């Protein structure tokens, strides 16, 4: 999956749509419950100190994710 | 910090009145306005209790409408029926009836946040599967409107096959009447009609549930989806190993290899997205102050700067703003003491009232203004969403210490009190990070340390400006840093040496910045003041009385102070009395232990008396120095300054005071914290470790300061 664009590659303020998810991890499954599923449009709002974690906005929600989890979500701009 | 202080009513007072005709659970996502809706519905007719066997709080309230008595319960916020934390698990178990039949609601009031409609509808979809009557409260319509979102409640109701949808505004109470009027009918209503979101899953679950009569279809569905989570494991235990094995085999064959939770989330959100697109319309958002602040504070540098400025202001405020009120309280207690002394003849009763009660309790109550200012800041920071932001910003830093971003909220609320902070660590999903946070939290300077710090700083640090700041405020800030440093090092040590296990994956919802709700802030602040005054009136009062008695008896066979010719003589007589009292003898006994720290027997006795609750030390010092001193118009701080060793050297030298401050910064002098750590970790090991470790560190710190400084 690393060849594709994932949530961790987005630039600040950029929007994208989730296209595929590596769902093997339980934490990722719980993020899907929060609404990070295929077809969800989101905006990368910025990173904390040292570039991690990352903040995303979607469906009226602001959610923070660590980079290692963001990599599991493939996106198309 | 998170728990709202509410009126506690005994269970029997609630159940005397008419038979309860329905148990309605108020369910919703976190921060959906669920609790303020619940408060609006039940007012003060509510009580808090724990769910059986666990310390998760549940609020129960009563509502009488149209001659019917309804019992409402406010469950912890959840995003779905697949829990990730203990709080969520308890809520889901209560909904399923796994907590016992009396916990199972007969109807649901689902709270759907209009500003985050899709997430609310996703949860609603799962709630509908519970086959209970459901009604929807559409909250945050005002917030949604500011964001340019409007939700058509009637259309939503139509799309949901006629389930009632009531838009309400929590802050103004608009729409509440209609909602309340509809509640009695809800308990008699039929379960909400729903077609399954995932027919294959429901079909399989129904087949399995047929084999085990005590388990429902919904429970099997939850077990399938959350197969390896604690809830799934618990339900599988009910099914038995044979049925579980069969269930697993069939699931792989019929539902595919991808984790079921992922499949369910995908289907559920597809449904919720389609529905929310149909019922909501959007227009450009209003310019919101909060949005601009959010933008500003999601950048690391301005946020940190803002955080530091806020903290400095807090410490300045604690000294500067509180002083006038404190002087007032001081003058008040002095006047009352003087009045009693003038009214009553010299003797035991007068000494008891003036030296025991007024000097003891008064010396603690005087710090109420400072404590309230501190609490005010922390409540506002939490209520405005600032704390959640700092959790996000500091995650990386926290990870380096073996903690997680989620540790930030308990650690900051620990500046108010470690007890709710230790309870707030429940949101941290991994045991390892949770324990490290619990071990670090009592190091944060809690409000009970404030009286000790304020007394010593007020007495021994000169009022002096250093640049823009006053020196006293800076020293206080330094003591806070000392506490933080202690916590940081402890977290590192505990993580390296004692803890093993997985580290967490950090993800959390960041609430919007918003203006704090002044009503909530005020209610919480009053609750804190009540707790503090109650402690002053009970524990601290009792200790002050005991200490007074120990200091007053037995009476020395020396000339009464009245007969003494000069003030100096009468002071000497009082000091001699104190020294041969029970307290004096006990203090002398432990003096050798604390002498290397530069503490005389009075300070040692006060510190020992303070082990159950650290602010007691101020009351004890107040009593000891009042009994041992005839010139009672002086402030305690003045008395401390003039305290001497028998050979005339002052007791409170600078190195000794610094050592004493360090001791209080690090030592775990709080029985309530020890008890809550025991309860939350379910063993004596951690509270025992924490107590021994912190006491040792405090002692060594004070020893080093005194020995190096002298």
Instruction: Estimate what percentage of residues of chain B fall within beta strands.
Output: 5-15%
Q: What helical percentage do the residues of chain B reach?
A: 55-70%
Spatial strand order of the main sheet of chain B:
2-3-4-1-5-6-8
- How many separate helices of chain A? 2
Question: If you consult CATH, what is the topology of chain A?
Answer: SH3 type barrels
Mean of residue pLDDT values of chain B = 82
Going by CATH, what is the homologous superfamily of the domain at 11-188 in chain B?
Answer: P-loop containing nucleotide triphosphate hydrolases
Provide a descriptive summary of the structure in words:
- The complex is a heterodimer of chains A (77) and B (710).
- Chain A starts with 14 loop residues before the first strand and ends with a strand.
- Chain A is built from 2 helices and 5 strands, in the order E-H-E-E-E-H-E.
- The longest helix of chain A is centred in the middle third of the chain and has 8 residues.
- Chain A has a single domain, classed as Roll (SH3 type barrels), CATH 2.30.30.
- Chain A has 77 residues and is an alpha+beta fold.
- In chain A, 16% of the residues lie in helices and 36% in strands.
- In chain A, strands 4-3-2-1-5 form a 5-stranded antiparallel β-sheet.
- Chain B is of the alpha/beta class and 710 residues long.
- Among the domains of chain B are: 178 residues, Rossmann fold; 59 residues; 126 residues, no CATH class.
- In chain B, 61% of the residues lie in helices and 8% in strands.
- Chain B has 33 helices and 12 strands.
- In chain B, the strands form 3 sheets. Chain B has a 7-stranded mixed β-sheet, sandwiched between helices.
- In chain B, a hairpin with a 2-residue loop joins strand 10 and strand 11.
- The longest helix of chain B has 35 residues.
- The radius of gyration of chain B is 30 Å and the shape is elongated.
- The N terminus of chain B is likely disordered.
- The interface between A and B is large, with 37 and 45 residues.
- Strand 4 of chain A pairs antiparallel with strand 12 of chain B, so a sheet runs across the interface.
């Amino acid at each position: 999956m690393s060849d594709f664009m994932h949530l961790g590659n987005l630039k600040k303020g950029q929007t994208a749509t989730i296209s595929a998810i590596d769902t093997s991890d339980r934490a990722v499954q719980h993020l899907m419950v929060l609404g990070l599923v295929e077809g969800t449009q989101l905006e990368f709002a910025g990173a904390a100190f040292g570039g991690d974690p990352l903040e995303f906005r979607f469906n009226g929600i602001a959610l923070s994710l660590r980079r290692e989890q963001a990599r599991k979500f493939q996106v198309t701009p | 910090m998170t728990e709202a202080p509410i009126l506690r009513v005994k269970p029997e007072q609630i159940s005397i009145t008419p038979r309860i005709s329905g148990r309605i659970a108020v369910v919703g996502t976190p921060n959906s306005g669920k609790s303020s809706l619940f408060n609006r519905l039940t007012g003060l007719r509510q009580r808090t209790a724990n769910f059986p066997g666990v310390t998760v709080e549940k609020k129960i309230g009563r509502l009488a409408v149209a001659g019917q008595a309804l019992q409402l319960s406010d469950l912890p916020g959840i995003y779905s029926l697949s829990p990730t934390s203990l709080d969520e698990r308890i809520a889901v178990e209560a909904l399923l009836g796994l907590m016992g039949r009396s916990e199972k609601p007969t109807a649901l009031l689902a709270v759907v946040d209009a500003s985050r409609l899709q997430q609310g509808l996703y949860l609603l979809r799962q709630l509908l599967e519970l086959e209970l009557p459901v009604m929807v409260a559409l909250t945050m319509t005002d917030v949604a409107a500011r964001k340019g979102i409007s939700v058509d409640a009637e259309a939503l109701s139509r799309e949901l096959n006629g389930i009632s949808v009531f838009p309400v505004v929590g802050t103004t109470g608009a729409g509440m009447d209609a909602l309340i009027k509809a509640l009695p009918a809800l308990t008699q209503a039929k379960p909400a009609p729903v077609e399954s979101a995932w027919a294959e899953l429901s079909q399989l679950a129904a087949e399995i549930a047929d084999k085990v009569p005590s388990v429902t279809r919904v429970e099997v569905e939850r077990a399938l989806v959350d197969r390896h989570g604690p809830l799934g494991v618990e339900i599988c235990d009910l099914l038995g190993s044979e049925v579980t094995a069969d269930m697993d085999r069939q699931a792989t064959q019929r539902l595919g290899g991808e984790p079921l939770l992922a499949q369910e989330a995908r289907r559920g959100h597809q449904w919720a997205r389609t529905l929310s697109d149909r019922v909501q319309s959007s227009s450009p958002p209003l310019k919101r102050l909060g949005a601009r602040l959010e933008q500003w504070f999601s950048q690391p540098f301005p946020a940190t700067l803002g955080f530091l400025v806020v903290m400095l202001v807090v410490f300045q405020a604690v000294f500067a703003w509180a002083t006038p009120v404190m002087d007032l309280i001081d003058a008040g207690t002095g006047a009352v003491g003087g009045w009693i002394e003038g009214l009553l003849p010299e003797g035991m009763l007068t000494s008891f009232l003036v030296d025991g009660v007024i000097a003891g309790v008064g010396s603690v109550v005087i710090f109420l203004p400072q404590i309230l200012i501190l609490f005010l800041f922390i409540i506002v920071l939490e209520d405005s969403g600032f704390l959640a932001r700092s959790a996000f910003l500091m995650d990386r830093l926290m990870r380096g210490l073996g903690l997680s971003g989620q540790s930030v909220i308990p650690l900051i609320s620990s500046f108010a009190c470690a007890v709710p902070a230790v309870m707030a660590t429940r949101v941290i999903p991994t045991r390892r990070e949770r324990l490290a946070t619990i071990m670090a939290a009592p190091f944060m300077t809690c409000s009970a340390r404030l009286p000790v710090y304020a007394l010593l700083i007020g007495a021994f640090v000169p009022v002096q400006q250093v640049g823009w700041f006053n020196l006293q405020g800076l020293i206080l800030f330094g003591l806070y840093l000392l506490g933080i440093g202690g916590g940081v090092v402890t977290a590192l040590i505990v993580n390296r040496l004692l803890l093993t296990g997985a580290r967490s994956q950090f993800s959390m919802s960041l609430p919007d910045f918003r203006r704090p709700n002044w009503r909530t802030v005020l209610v919480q602040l009053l609750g804190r003041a009540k707790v503090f005054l109650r402690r002053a009136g009970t524990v601290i009062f009792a200790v002050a009385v005991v200490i007074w008695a120990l200091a007053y008896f037995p009476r020395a066979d020396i000339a009464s102070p009245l007969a003494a010719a000069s003030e100096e003589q009468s002071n000497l007589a009082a000091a001699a009395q104190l020294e041969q009292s029970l307290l004096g003898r006990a203090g002398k006994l432990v003096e050798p232990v604390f002498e290397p720290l530069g503490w005389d027997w009075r300070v040692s006795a006060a510190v020992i008396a303070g082990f159950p609750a650290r602010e007691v030390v101020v009351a004890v010092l107040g009593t000891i120095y009042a009994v041992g001193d005839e010139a009672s118009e002086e402030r305690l701080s003045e008395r401390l300054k003039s305290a001497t060793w028998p050979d005339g050297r002052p007791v409170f030298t600078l190195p000794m005071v610094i050592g004493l401050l360090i001791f209080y910064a690090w030592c775990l002098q709080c029985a309530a914290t020890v008890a809550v750590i025991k309860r939350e970790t379910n063993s004596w090991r951690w509270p025992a470790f924490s107590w021994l470790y912190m006491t040792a560190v405090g002692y060594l710190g004070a020893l080093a300061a005194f020995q190096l400084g002298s």
